[in-house]
From TrEMBL, chain A:
Upper taxonomic lineage: Bacteria, Bacillati, Bacillota, Clostridia, Eubacteriales
Cited Pfam families: DUF881
Residue stretches in coiled coil: 40-74
Presence of the UniProt keyword Coiled coil in the record: yes
This protein's name: Division initiation protein
Family: Belongs to the UPF0749 family.
Keywords: Coiled coil
Domain of life: Bacteria
Automatic annotation (TrEMBL), chain B:
Keyword Transcription regulation tagged: no
Transmembrane stretches, start-end: 28-44, 56-74, 80-105
Keyword Membrane: yes
Primary localization class, coarse: membrane
Protein name from the UniProt record: Small basic protein
Membrane disposition: Multi-pass membrane protein
UniProt record similarity statement: Belongs to the sbp family.
Pfam families on file: DUF1290
Entry GO CC: plasma membrane
Localisation per UniProt entry: Cell membrane
Length: 238, 116
């Protein structure tokens, strides 16, 4: 009788183990499905954003072509004005991030520290967010950085930085906060370097969980923006 | 045999029933399962060595699982991954027990072939 009772207990215990195993498998599978679902949503949102941007680009392109034609006509009519107009146009384009630019500056490389002994791999508080990127960009702009890019995405006067869906969006482009992030800035390299190394800049917030490296360089190339500059609502005051 | 039947019933219940265990407990549950597996391997070893005691098995099963889960929880709260200690100890013991089980089974098969 005693043996039968102990066998029943063993069976019950094994049943509990089986239940726990099956339940955990089921739970983890559901979690994975949820992650895939979220990724699909992200991709759909990205496709929507790209389609929208394409339409905007087509519109802006046609407008720019018309403007260029007009400028060429003016330049042809008044030959002396040609050089000045061209110079102003190039300058404006440089400032707006519409053409590739180069110059002295710094490169900040931010790499996540490896989390070998971290308790929880899904911990998102370790990752940087929009506020850390904005903080660095603001510090660089304060010392008059003339052009800034984040992971080769040029920041324009109309570029916003925002967290969404686990990514950091730089305008229409997204970067992964768990990957290496490279911020390039063109300007007076000594000032930029000083600003970047200033206390509270590269150790701000979650940046403490990242390795940061600041490198000065005599020639940094920042590629043009992929974002369109809109002037739909603004107009000069008469 | 009875253990395998119990295990199968448990797996079926786990797959068919929708019992909600909070997802936040999932990491602790995983460590507890490892501790349970260790107890089961220990039980198999003890059965083959003819010194299996149900009360020791059952108390070890629940005791180890609770201790592992509590350690994981405590580590999470203190910010140090104590659960690694449980994973290493129970993981190591599972392999040790499996090695002994393997040897006992092979010896048994050999002695049966010899006609002992």
């Amino acid at each position: 009788m005693k043996k039968v009772t102990s066998q029943i207990f063993v069976a019950i215990v094994c049943a509990i183990l089986g239940f726990l195993l099956a339940h955990q498998f089921k739970m983890l599978n559901e979690k994975n499905k949820d992650t895939v679902g979220n990724q699909n949503l992200d991709i759909m949102a990205e496709i929507d954003a790209l389609n929208k941007e394409k339409e905007e680009l087509l519109k802006v392109n046609s407008e720019l072509l018309a403007e260029l034609k007009k400028l060429e006509e003016t330049a042809a009519a008044e030959g002396a004005m040609e050089a000045e107009i061209k110079k102003q146009l190039d300058n404006t384009r440089m400032q707006l991030g519409l053409i590739d630019v180069k110059g002295p500056g710094i490169t900040i490389t931010i790499t996540p520290k490896t989390n070998i002994f971290g308790g929880n791999s899904t911990d998102t508080t370790r990752n940087i967010s929009e506020s850390e990127i904005v903080h660095i960009v603001n510090s660089l702009r304060y010392v008059r950085a003339e052009a800034i890019s984040v992971n080769d995405y040029r920041l324009t006067p109309q570029t916003g930085i925002k967290d969404s869906g686990g990514w950091i969006w730089i305008g229409n482009e997204k970067i992964n906060p768990k990957d290496k992030i490279v911020i390039k800035a063109i300007g007076e390299k000594e000032s930029l370097s000083y600003a970047a190394n200033f206390v509270g800049v590269l150790d701000y917030g979650a940046l403490q969980n990242y390795y940061s490296e600041v490198k000065e360089s005599d020639e940094i190339i920042i590629k043009k923006t992929t974002q369109t500059i809109r002037s739909e609502f603004i107009s000069p005051v008469e | 045999m009875i253990a395998i039947i119990g295990l199968l019933i448990g797996v079926l219940l786990g797959l068919l029933l929708n019992i909600n265990i909070p997802q936040s407990l999932s990491p602790y549950l995983s460590v507890a399962i490892l501790a349970c597996l260790d107890s089961v391997f220990g039980a198999v070893r003890a059965t083959l060595s003819n010194n299996f005691k149900a009360d020791i098995f059952i108390s070890g099963f629940f005791g180890n699982a609770a201790l592992a889960a509590v350690l994981a929880y405590l580590g999470d709260k203190l910010g140090i991954p104590i659960y690694i200690a449980a994973v290493i100890v129970f993981g190591g013991r599972i392999f040790d027990n499996f090695a002994v089980v393997r040897r006992l089974l092979i010896e048994r098969i050999k002695s049966r072939n010899r006609g002992d």
